[in-house]
Each structure stands twice: as C-alpha cells, then as structure tokens.
C-alpha cells in the first residue's frame, strides 16, 4: 500500500521535498557518513576498558551486572525529563521500572542514562524565567548528548513531552544518530474546565471584572491533574509530530496517563527499542530514519492540525541536526496545499481528548496519506512505513496490547474532518515578508475579516509596557502593537501570551488590532492577528527597531506582506531606537546564558546556538 500511495504524492509536496534534498545534499551526506562510521565500530560497551565497564554496571543488580559484563544483550538508555512539579512529566516517575522490566524480559538491561531539564512555559509566562525557555531546548540537547556520551548503549528511549523538551531530545538523539531512538509520551490530562470558558475568564480578569481568586479557581479547574495541558499548544503538537514522524508507536500520543493502555504502550515502546538495534536484524538508526521526507511529513502534520508556530523554529533546528536544511518558504509552500483537518483549542472549542475520541492521529494520517500529502514509504520505529499508523492501540480481554484499524469516519465533524471537506483549504500558516523583515502568522484561529490589518503603530519594549498602557486606558482605536527587543539575542525570545487577553478585549470592543513582534507565541496564540518571530530582530539590526508610534503598519496575511507605510526618505534617515536590555541579562540564572545570547542564530534558522 505504501508504494502505491507514495507514487501519488502531491506535486507540491514532491517539489518541496526534492528541493530540500538538493539544498541539503552536502550536509546530509556528511551527517550520514558520520553516523555510518559510528555504526561500523559496533556497540562500544565491550571495547571499553575494564575500569570503564566496572563503573558502568557497579550499581546494577546481579543479573543485570552479569548481562552487561558477559552477555550480548541490548543495553537500553533511558533519557528522562521527569520531574514531579510539572503535570506533563510527573507520570514519568514510574516509567524507568516498567522499561527495566521489559528490557529484562527481552534479555537485556535498561539504565537511566541521564536526566534533562524540563521547564514549563505555563509557570513562567510573564516572568523572568520565560527568558530561559527557548534556550532550554539547546540545554536539553546538550544534556542528552552528555547522557549518551558513556558509549555503553545500543538504543535509547526518550521520556519527554512538553514545549522545548521534545525538540531538544530530538536534536540530542540525532547527535548519536547511529543509535535507534523511540520516544515515549505520557499523554494528556483528562478534560477539565473547557478552554473557551477559561479564555473568557482570563479576559474578564484583564478587564478588572473579576478578582484573582476567581481566575485562580478557573485555572485550577483547567489544569487539574497529571498529563499535558489539553489545549493544542506546543506540547501536544510535539506529540502529533513524533507520531507522524514515526518516532512513537502508532496511536501512542494521546492516551491518558496512569491507565492500563498507557502502561502497555510504554512497555511495548521499550520492547520495540530493544528489537531495532544493530545487534538484531531490524536495525533502525534514528539519524538514517529521519530523512527529508520525514521532516516534510512533520510539517504537513503541523499544518493539517493547526499546530504550534514554535515549530517553525523547532523543526528547522531539529532538521539541521540531521544535516537537513529547512526554510520558512518550505513551511509556507506546504501550508498552501495542506487542508486544515482539526479544530482544537485555540482553533476551536474542543481539547485534545475530544480530538483523540473523534478519530485522532490514525484518522489524520489516513486522510493525509489518502490525499497524497504524506510520504508513506518512510522508515518508522514500528516498521511498515506510515501505513501502520492508521491503526490505533487497544487492550484485548486478556490484557494484551493489540492494534486495530482506526475509524474511517470522523466521530465529530466539529472537531475533525476529512481531507475532502476540511475546515479550510490551507493549513493557516503564512510567511510574511516586507520592509520589516520576515515573520510568520497563524491564521487558522483568526476570523477572515481580520487577515489584513492596517493601522498606526503603538510601540513597546516589553509586554509589561503594553499591559500598563491597557490598564491605564491609553490603548484606544485601531492600532498595531509593535513589541520589540524580544528576540533570542535580546532576551532569549520569551513567549508573550500576557499580551493576548488585553488585545483580545480591545478586539472584542470593536477595535482593529494586530501584534508585530520579534518574540514568540505558540499554538495557543489565539484570535488576534500576530506577525511573530520577526527577523532580523531589533537587537540584531532589524528594521522593527526603526518603527515609531504613529507609523502606519500593514499586516497582510492574504498577500503575505509585512510593511510600514512610511516615506522612503523618512525611513532611510531613521536610527534604531535605543533599548536597555541589561535587566534581562541578570537574575533568575539569566547571567549564565550570556554565551547563548551571543551565539544564537536567527528565528528563521531555528534560533539555535548550534551550527545550521
């Protein structure tokens, strides 16, 4: 089936894939040669010195120690983002023991190779810690490499789920691309307060109509238990992407934590990782598996589900780690031919549990393969190409894990639709370019009449400045909020979600408003038009630093332009506005990241400290 489907791949998808292959040829070949050389050397454990080996199994029990000392079984690395403060990662506490047990049954050993940090943007929103958030992705990649550097492992399972954690783990895994890698999700929390109700309460608080107690109660009813937040932001987009890129087991992404099915999938993931090492007959190194077609599949999935705009940076950085060069033009061109199949908050009222119940990933993948929008003939950790991912996991009566065909029909067309009758014809992500630079805008949650906004600029150097102006009643009439010096070189590129409630209030009152910023917003950016990730950023000589209050700014998601309507002579005489960035460079650990701010690349090249 895969060969037949792959011969019908959409012409634009094929064109984009082929140009990525051509553009990446030299860097991809060098990468593949590097991991092939590492693979040729074979498993390194037996080649270690006696003292090295003894250190590696000193704390193991007798049977594990004997296997590592004399046996030829697999040694499976566990790289974990567990902590018990974050709801999404708390379920990982019990995973290592499940994985160890599975490894022993398969004649091998599993060891926790290392931990990586996992911070939560939901906790740090609007706080100084948010300025470490994007950089944490590259710290996670570095931590992953350190975890695997003992060279005593034959494969790895990665326990991570949220915003920067999964991209960082992927980048780190690709630095050991000769090893197989299986990603193991923990699943979303059960549904709480509906997301649209939560959004209304946030706006009421922004307007001063309710107090902090009411707001905290609503937030607590929304974020109420173990698992990922249930809206379709970056964390759940990560899970979609790991599945459609073949790094999860089929149907694993959105099974709730602490259920028998979730535990069975975790055990099966460990077993599968043990089965695809170089010691067996089904070797699937992650660096070879994640080729240009797989990254195109990931971008198509992003568009089809209305996923997080953060992935316009994360996927670029992930691909670069495999020697593959993606650009924002690739994202834009794929969006033009990818229909929007999902309405999950903030693009609709449903949450990811509703999406999963309506047919979930099996339905989405079936529709996209059937419409020629995915490369089905790719390698996956499960085998059999992406055709295997139109199935969903179930538990038989005897408790054993099995797979069945996913539903061919949507269980709720208000949440999930087929490719022939989508919510909209395109993925809703546009590349903007013009005299203010390049930016991306997500239109899938924005009313069509707001896809073009032309209004005077109101310029701010922080989201706190805008909030203060709103509370003082100084934001009236139509305007484009220009919030600058928020890029990676300036202050680590924080997400700016504290802007959304006040801008949403003003929009609901009838004003035409939009946001232009070199900072970030994620999949939860909502209903206000937002040209984000503007590059070059203000701190890197970008034209956004030249905008003044009152300049007429046009955000045009239809034409794909981002312009300032100022006479050329006047514009040419402008000098960049000064900004005092010193307060963002100290405190809450930010002084430790000076080297990151100095080395980081541009948003369109992944906003990473690594070479791209």
Structure characterization notes:
- The longest helix has 30 residues, at 11-40.
- Strand 1, helix 5 and strand 2 (109-115) form a beta-alpha-beta unit.
- The protein has an 8-stranded mixed beta sheet with strand order 7-8-12-11-10-9-13-14. A 4-stranded parallel beta sheet has the order 2-1-3-4.
- The protein starts with a helix and ends in a 13-residue tail after the last helix.
- With 612 residues, the protein is α/β, with parallel strands linked by helices.
- The chain contains 23 helices and 14 strands.
- It folds into 2 domains: 2-24 and 36-190 and 225-405, no CATH class; 429-605, Glucose Oxidase, domain 1 (3-Layer(bba) Sandwich), CATH 3.50.30.80.
Shape: globular
Low-pLDDT runs: 1-7
Query: Strand fraction band?
Result: 5-15%
Q: Could you give a short account of the major beta sheet?
A: 8 strands, mixed
Number of strands: 14
Cofactor: [4Fe-4S] cluster
Pathway: Carbohydrate metabolism; Entner-Doudoroff pathway
Keywords: 4Fe-4S, Carbohydrate metabolism, Gluconate utilization, Iron, Iron-sulfur, Lyase, Metal-binding
EC number: 4.2.1.12
